[in-house]
Design brief:
Strand 6 (59-64), helix 1 and strand 7 form a beta-alpha-beta unit. It is built from eleven helices and 15 strands. The protein has two domains: 3-56 and 329-339 and 355-377, Urease, subunit C, domain 1 (Roll), CATH 2.30.40; 59-316, Metal-dependent hydrolases (TIM Barrel), CATH 3.20.20.140. Helices cover 23% and strands 28% of the residues. The radius of gyration is 20 Å and the shape is globular. Helix 3 runs parallel beside helix 4. It has 381 residues and is an alpha/beta fold. The structure holds zinc ion.
Length: 381
Amino acid sequence: MPYDLLLKGATVVDPSRNLSASSDVAIQDGKIAAVEPSISSDRATRVVDVSGKYVTPGLVDLHVHAYWGSTYWGVDVDPVAARTGVITSVDAGSAGAYNWRGFRRFHIERLKSRLVAYLNISSIGLTHQTYEHANLYYDDVDLAIETASQNRDVIVGIKVRLDQNTIGHNGIVPMDRARAAADALNLPIMVHIGVAPPPLAEIIPRMRPGDVLTHCFTGHSNRIVDRNHNVRDDVQRAWDAGIILDVGHGGGSFSYPVAEAMIRQGLLPNCISTDIHVSSIRGPMYDLPTTLSKFLNLGLSLSEVIERATINPARAINRADSLGTLDVGREADLAVFEIVEGDHEFKDVDLISRRGTKRLYCRLAMRAGTILDPEEEGLPL
Ligand SMILES: [Zn+2]
């Protein structure tokens, strides 16, 4: 039996297997059939020449807002997937228990790309721009447990946004509610940080190994570095113990001075995600390839940035057995990238600018052997 499709001539970058080498990739029945240094063209029905490009596992974006049409921040992620290679989006708490069923039926189950989600501990999710924990009646632990228990196939954790505005006058209580639900479910929490209160000193002791701290390069008052740009001791200890630092660039959460200080000290984030939403998609975040390009130009290798957008986020959501890898036999989720050399300008959320010589562009996106076509998908807003 010939292969359905052969991607020929690229460099395959698959950090899940420490692979970065020129290889051909064969696809059969929607699955990865072979990854070998050379596979003959006459063994496949269709051959795509991808020489000079890079084949990676389908990207996994750990922080997106995908509840288009029903929540403040949501974008339609299929057009994003087709253009960026983000085959799996992990929604960061757009839905809570009250509006979960619409999210599942009209988004998760209907998309061409993959979508899983952190359930917001606030039952109203991100219907409004903020204040979702200002009324503690919404932070309903029992209802969150019931909803997540019934949707274990696609709910990967509990989300809580801890920020001056989101909490109203409720301090650290929303975090304690999220903790109670997550512990009962044996799922991790994704914690959003930004502006205190509550202060980081109250948040960090409530986190456990496997929990995700998103917006780790925020320049706001809850930033994880001190005045001298050294990582705070409490964050360092929690990180050593196994909490996961995630970028979540967004519209307000990526500061070049903070990121550069961390990287200078050899401290790299575990996951690089976008926090793509109605505003950040218009820039200076734009998309995951742009965000990864910022880290490429900060000195990380291509393998290091791809690892942080494939196997590392797959591990964070306990899906490393099915996502973030090009292992033979897995569903053929993959992306083809080109690195365009030139004089590129990138900006952080304060419009501090840096120049770089490399920029990643996605040239092909595939879920389970099916190519996602940007022309067909329309626009994400
Ligand atoms: Zn977000």
